[in-house]
Q: What sequence folds into this?
């Protein structure tokens, strides 16, 4: 089956990506393309623009678990001036529901004009529309490393200052939930990552080029292994 929008899953090394891709196809009722293992987030997003055939397409991360009641037939095209729409995702460890890890409807032509930002999609030209509806769960805790990485990257970017214009007080509340409020499988790794991400933001404030490391998968894995590999193996 085909629909008015293409759909694509962008995955890198997520352990459950294969089954989540199958779920995405089943729920949407269309073939969902997949781009896997591309090194560099900005490069991956730009390649995504060349994989799809419709100018507006749904984009899901490799850890996104779409809700079974999400109805593709109810998805409206983007408004004029908007480059992306973001549905909320629920975080299974701390209960937060916001755009982090959420499903996106994105304009291919906007990706081809992607600018520079640490939170890569914040550099799209045009407006980003955040909607209140929750479209699924961001399954960040697929492994100790993935839980740690999620906390580290997100809290480093929140502590630095949201590139989407989130008010500072709201960012602080979300950091607190990441740092203090996690429960569930690998929650301890997510909280450790969150605390270390906040500390990294303070360190990188003095050396701004360090923020680019947040998009370097080799650097992130090396940092995790240096601090947490033995704990992860021990369980």
A:
């Amino acid at each position: 089956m085909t629909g008015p929008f293409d759909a694509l899953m962008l995955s890198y090394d997520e352990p459950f990506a294969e089954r989540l891709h199958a779920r995405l196809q089943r729920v949407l009722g269309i073939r969902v393309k997949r781009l896997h293992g591309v090194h560099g987030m900005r490069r991956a997003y730009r390649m995504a623009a060349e994989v799809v055939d419709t100018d507006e397409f749904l984009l899901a991360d490799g850890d996104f678990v779409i809700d079974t009641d999400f109805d593709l037939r109810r998805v409206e095209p983007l408004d004029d001036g908007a480059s992306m729409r973001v549905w909320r995702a629920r975080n299974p460890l701390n209960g937060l529901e916001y755009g982090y890890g959420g499903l996106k409807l994105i304009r291919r032509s906007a990706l081809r004009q992607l600018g520079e930002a640490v939170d890569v999609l914040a550099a799209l030209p045009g407006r980003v529309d955040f909607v209140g509806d929750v479209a699924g769960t961001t399954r960040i805790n697929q492994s100790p490393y993935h839980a740690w990485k999620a906390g580290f990257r997100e809290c480093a970017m929140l502590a630095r200052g949201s590139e989407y214009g989130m008010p500072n007080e709201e960012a602080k509340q979300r950091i607190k939930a990441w740092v203090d409020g996690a429960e569930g499988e690998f929650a301890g790794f997510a909280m450790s990552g969150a605390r270390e991400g906040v500390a990294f933001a303070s360190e990188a404030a003095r050396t701004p080029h360090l923020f680019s490391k947040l998009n370097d998968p080799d650097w992130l894995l090396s940092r995790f292994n240096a601090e947490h590999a033995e704990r992860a193996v021990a369980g």
Summary: Helices lie at 17-28, 41-51, 108-111, 144-160, 168-180, 187-206, 217-234.
